[in-house]
UniProtKB/TrEMBL annotation:
Pfam family, any one: Aconitase_C
GO biological process: carboxylic acid metabolic process; tricarboxylic acid cycle
Organism for this UniProt entry: Rariglobus hedericola
Family: Belongs to the aconitase/IPM isomerase family.
Region Disordered, annotated ranges: 1-28
SUPFAM superfamilies listed in its UniProt record: Aconitase iron-sulfur domain, LeuD/IlvD-like
Domain Aconitase/3-isopropylmalate dehydratase large subunit alpha/beta/alpha: 118-612
Keywords, ordered alphabetically: 4Fe-4S, Iron, Iron-sulfur, Lyase, Metal-binding
Name of the protein in question: Aconitate hydratase
Metabolic or biological pathway, per its Swiss-Prot or TrEMBL entry: Carbohydrate metabolism; tricarboxylic acid cycle; isocitrate from oxaloacetate: step 2/2
An annotated Gene Ontology molecular function: aconitate hydratase activity
Cofactors required: [4Fe-4S] cluster
Function: Catalyzes the isomerization of citrate to isocitrate via cis-aconitate.
Reactions this protein catalyses: citrate = D-threo-isocitrate
């Protein structure tokens, strides 16, 4: 334990005498240098009248490009008596934010001391107030976030205040990438047709985004057709080091409204996914609060063998780290194996941190990061500043074994990785490629509750259908998609897919006609290098024409199958398959009628499209036959590492990045044609089915509520393990017969214009009706029957969950949801919590929670409770006929306090069980008392103005 340092000279900041005008774009509350390209924002000159905080005398200077620059020095903090150099790199970067933002209010000196004294194996009870440098959004989560900001402004105006007090205090970038759908595939004009449909379907949403661009000073939009948010972040938005209006340099850090924001960890930037609710609070000046984490170090050694891809490595690490239970922890990679990996491979691994459950999968900063920045178009002078800054902070270079004290250390030899896939229902269920056939056949007859399909083995061969001259059967591949940020940002695997396609065409192989194949690159840079290497035509010939630039199949935007194929699948209850180079394969996510979904590298996606089935051993069985009838095996067309490396020189050309990320408006005429309204307050249209003013600030009062016990709650749903946000949150297609479908038809919307739930996230009327409406969710109140239904008590009537919730709301009955392990795993979907709240759910009790969803529930004023070890809905014999009370809940509640859940059964017998309150931090108690994070922040802003 280091000696206690002397008190710093000051941790206060004296404000300028005159508040900057919000409407003056050159005087934004926080201005960040957009260092590299395109043209930078106008930077204000340092305001010398402001006295900067100087905790522990850490405000010092470093030299770069022949000039002196200010920064908050971590080595200076070590000189003050803290063992900073032994801290994990990720912890040190968060610590810098505390130093720089120490104002005695949001960030105190005590918070600095607590984190600077981080101990590898201590109990985690302290919360960190992390002020991030910027925020990134994708449009599915970004649109409802902007709706909330607009609603806040409306609420402020009703209170007689200036709407401009609601303004993002950190730069916000929204990338429109989730709205493209694969309606057209397998043709040269698929891209243009899908883009036309995207703009037609989403015109109203895009108008709203354009309003937001002019209404908020720090809100910017990357329009459709550019790329996936995480790849755009990596290739364009990320700066590495930033500078504020006072000339102080600091690390680029962020949170994003997508769980795979962690991809940016591959370039040494601290950032992770949060719900839109939490991101909104961060935009409005609130720190991102989280419990001081454990940091698991993964010591990488060795090198990948011939025939093994970065995807195989990511899937193997996902399985390993999930087994080691890194949920909610930082994972930091180090050692010679990490040093040898290029940034694109690091980013592939970091991207899948949500799949292995970690908050981050972080790689420290080194020369490879500089190489990547330079290769993607950043300027040499800025890279020199970047290197000088991190060297001055003693953060340069990937640590060796023994340099850092980690909470736990894992050893991993890269040479042990073998070709792998993951599935058929979860990304952590890795399968060695050679075991794929056996695993699918085993899963076919395995019980559903054991991650199988519960079918009879005699159906495996006998049940099939005949469509357009081809047999469809169990295991047929119907969707093959090279998609998702996980892999399309990595030139090595994309070029491998192109090389494999080239060899396949040259051998005379063709894709099975049942397969809907598609290519959705993460950015236009991918198209550029596939064309320059001459590989694009071969992918085209196999049906992998580009269908769009965005997140498609991996989020359920796979589009329709041929109606004849879909009819055959449904009629015969076939366990058909999709193969995709994504990161998510939960039930009903890719396509609601495709039950078996496998994650794999892009070249393997092409291979399985050629094979046309997943019950195949690619090591011993041929993909097909060549022009002479000779069998062609995977080994015959698999590209070598040398062949891939020979093509890599064409992949990362700085001038290409500068050109493609220069003037979005000029490159996107459709975006320019979208009109928008102006003004600081949005005029919500009563008849809109896309954008509606949410009810979160209805009857808003400046006085917060009180925390009281909850009595007489009824069960809305009882669920088993691994209920994901895909099950909870409205996603994918809207069924005609669903509450949301009925609502749209009553509003005069034809079925062909329903669009997806994701595109209608700005309308709470649609989204609330779609919460818990997933066709694969299993409510144990109905004996595990699939679909979004429940039993309405006390009458015992079977109803859609929304309809039952509406009846309970009429009666003033609070609702409870009961679940098993890992409740809320999945994308950081704010509507999984918002919809839960709007249905009238006051309590969610589970065996364990996913980190972001638990936080989002509290952020929406929903109480998360956790069963004691060994206690489940099954051990308690719960069936939904009970009523529930939460005893011990009051204004004196403490984080993670034990409470009593009183269960009164229909025979009037009573069980009192102990549950842990999963309001984890003091600030979350405030959020809960205020009815959620948004009312809390709004009251704070109004009080400050």
């Amino acid at each position: 334990m280091p000696s206690r340092p002397s008190r710093p000279s000051t941790c206060r900041i004296s404000k300028p005498s005159k508040r900057p005008s919000p409407s003056n774009s050159s005087s934004r509350p926080v201005a960040v240098a957009r260092f590299y390209f395109p043209p930078t924002d106008n930077l204000t000159r340092p305001d010398l009248s402001v006295s900067l905080p100087n905790p522990f005398n850490t405000l010092q200077s470093f030299t770069a490009n022949g000039a002196s620059h200010q920064f908050y020095s971590l080595p200076a903090l070590e000189q003050a008596g803290f063992a900073i150099s032994k801290l994990p790199v990720s912890i040190r970067i968060v610590l810098e934010s505390l130093l720089r933002n120490c104002d005695g209010k949001r960030v105190s000196e005590l918070a600095i001391r607590d984190l600077a004294r981080w101990q590898a194996k201590s109990a985690r009870t302290e919360e960190i107030p992390f002020v991030v440098a910027r925020i990134v959004l994708q449009d599915f989560t970004g649109v409802p976030l902007l709706v909330d900001l607009a609603a806040m402004r409306s609420a402020v105006v009703k209170l007689g205040k200036n709407p401009k007090i609601i303004e993002p205090l950190v730069p916000v970038d929204l990338v429109v990438d989730h709205s493209v759908q694969v309606d057209f595939a397998g043709s040269a004009d698929a891209l243009a047709k899908n883009l036309d449909l995207e703009f037609s379907r989403n015109r109203e949403r895009y108008q709203f985004l354009k309003w937001g661009m002019q209404a908020f000073d720090t809100f910017k939009v990357v329009p459709p057709g550019i790329g996936i948010v995480h790849q755009v972040n990596l290739e364009y938005l990320a700066k590495g080091v930033l500078k504020d209006t006072h000339g102080v340099y600091y690390p680029d850090t962020l949170v994003g409204t997508d769980s795979h924001t962690t991809m940016i960890n591959g370039i040494g930037i601290v950032g992770w996914g949060v719900g839109g609710i939490e991101a909104e609070a961060g935009m409005l000046g609130q720190p991102v609060y989280f419990l001081t984490p454990d940091v698991v170090g993964v010591h990488l050694t060795g090198a990948l063998k011939e025939g093994v891809t970065a995807t195989d490595l990511a899937l193997t690490l996902t399985q390993l780290l999930r087994k080691h239970k890194v949920v909610g922890k930082f994972v930091e990679f180090f050692g010679p194996g990490a040093t040898a990996l290029p940034v694109v491979d690091r980013a592939t691994i970091a991207n899948m941190a949500p799949e292995y459950g970690a908050t981050m999968g972080f790689f420290p900063i080194d020369a490879e990061c500089s190489n990547y920045l330079r290769a993607t178009g950043r300027l040499d002078a800025d890279i020199e500043t970047y290197e000088a800054y991190y060297k001055a902070q003693n953060l340069w270079g990937i640590p060796a074994k023994g340099d850092i004290e980690y909470s736990a250390e894992l050893e991993f030899d890269l040479s042990n990785v073998v070709p792998s896939v993951a599935g058929p229902k979860r990304p952590q269920d890795r399968i060695e490629l050679t075991a794929m056939k056996d695993e699918f056949i085993t899963a076919f007859s395995r019980p559903v509750n054991e991650n199988g399909f519960g079918k009879k083995m005699d159906e495996f061969v006998t049940v099939k259908a005949h469509v357009a001259g081809t047999d469809i059967r169990h295991g047929s591949v119907l969707i093959a998609a090279i998609t998702s940020c996980t892999n399309t940002s990595n030139p090595s695997v994309m070029l491998a897919a192109g090389l494999l396609a080239k060899k396949a065409v040259e051998h005379g192989l063709t894709v099975n006609p049942l397969v809907k194949s598609s290519l959705a690159p993460g950015s236009r840079v991918v198209t550029d290098y596939l064309e320059k290497t001459g590989l694009a035509p071969y992918l085209d010939q196999l049906g992998f024409q580009t269908v769009g630039y965005g997140c498609t199949t991996c989020i359920g935007n796979s589009g329709p199958l041929d109606p004849r194929i879909e009819e055959a699948v449904v009629k015969n209850d076939l366990v058909a398959a999709s193969v995709l180079s994504g990161n998510r394969n939960f039930e009903a996510r890719v396509h609601q009628n495709i039950k078996s979904n496998f994650l794999m590298s892009p070249p393997l996606v092409v291979a399985f499209a050629l094979a046309g089935r997943v019950d195949i051993d690619l090591a011993t069985e041929p993909l097909g036959t060549d022009k002479k009838g000779k069998p062609v095996y995977l080994k015959d067309i698999w590209p070598t590492l040398k062949e891939v490396r020979n093509q890599m020189q064409a992949a990362l050309k700085p001038e290409v990045f500068r050109k493609l990320y220069s003037d979005f408006a000029e490159q996107n005429p459709k975006w320019n044609e979208i009109p928008s309204t102006t003004g600081n307050v949005y005029s919500f249209e009563a008849n809109s089915t896309y954008i509606q003013e949410p009810p979160f600030f209805t009857n808003f009062s400046l006085t917060p509520g009180t925390i009281n016990e909850i009595h007489g709650a009824r069960a809305l749903g009882i669920f088993g393990d691994s209920v994901t946000t895909d099950h909870i949150s409205p996603a994918g297609a809207i069924k005609k017969s669903s509450p949301a479908g009925r609502f749209l038809q009553e509003a005069g919307v034809s079925f062909e214009d329903f669009n997806s739930y994701g595109s209608r996230r700005g309308n709470d009327r649609i989204m609330t009706r779609g919460t818990f409406a997933n066709v694969r969710i299993k409510n144990l109140m109905l004996g595990g029957e699939e679909g979004g239904n429940t039993i309405y008590q006390p009458t015992g009537e079977k109803l859609a969950i929304f309809d039952a919730a509406a009846k309970h709301k009429e009666n003033g009955t609070p609702l409870i949801v009961i679940a098993g392990q890992e409740y809320g795993t999945g994308s950081s979907r704010d509507w999984a919590a918002k919809g839960t709240n709007l249905l009238g759910v006051k309590i969610v009790v589970a065996q364990s929670f996913e980190r972001i969803h638990r936080s989002n529930l509290v952020g929406m004023g929903v109480l998360p409770l956790q069963f004691s070890e060994g206690t489940t809905a099954q051990t308690l014999g719960l069936d939904g006929t009970e009523t529930y009370d939460v005893i011990g809940l009051g204004m004196t509640i403490k984080p993670q306090q034990d409470l009593t859940l009183r269960i009164t059964r229909s025979d009037t017998s009573v069980n009192n069980i102990t549950v842990r309150c999963r309001i984890d931090t003091p600030i979350e108690i405030d959020y809960y008392q205020h009815g959620g994070i948004l009312p809390y922040v709004l009251r704070q802003i109004i009080a400050a103005n």
